[in-house]
Amino acid sequence: MVFHLVPTPYVASKPSYPMKILCIGRNYAEHIAELQNEMPDAPVIFAKPDTALLQRNQPFFMPDFSQDIHHEIELVLRVCKNGKNIEEKFAPTYFDAIGLGIDFTARDLQSKLKSKGLPWELAKGFDGSAPISQEFKPVADFPDLKNIDFRLEVNGEVRQQGNSSLMLHDFNKIISYISQFITLKMGDLIFTGTPSGVGPVKIGDQLTGYLADEKLLDLAVK
């Protein structure tokens, strides 16, 4: 069963809230290899609370519970209408804009929790762990959704570089798969996975994210 609702007019810098943040893990083969993880059979889903959201290029403050915070740049979809059990062929009508986000990860905490077979939400969902670009670009601005370049620079040096063509699960698959388990609602944000090159950040770093060649993220680590 699919629900079709008329989306609200597009506003680039003012997503609708309340919302939830849903994330895709292990969606780029090279990233899976660099962390020596197993290749998943289906999209790996986790969530961040709304308190993880960091907007308007506000600085990211290093938490005191981790000594190894890693950056993970990602393309982020903005959901534009409610839907459940969405077929892949209808998935493109459920997101209207694409932006950038950083999935900050407390890698030391994550490794500790994983080694004990425990959930690792604390390593992903802490306050401020989900910076997003203030501007989201309308889907219509992209001639090919399977060929979107993006990158992250740290202190002017390229650390991560990705393209949506390298995703193991594309946007439509992600939308469809999530909606089998979790109802998507207008304003939800979906982080679609990170390419290789993840690494630690430190106080004083400046992180800059580019969608194609347009700078959309620029935040300081404090």
TrEMBL record:
Key words, A-Z: Isomerase, Metal-binding
GO MF annotation list: isomerase activity
Source organism, top-level taxon: Bacteria
Keyword flag Ribosomal protein: no
Domain Fumarylacetoacetase-like C-terminal: 20-206
PANTHER family hit by this protein: ACYLPYRUVASE, ACYLPYRUVASE FAHD1, MITOCHONDRIAL
Name listed for the protein in its UniProt record: 2-hydroxyhepta-2,4-diene-1,7-dioate isomerase
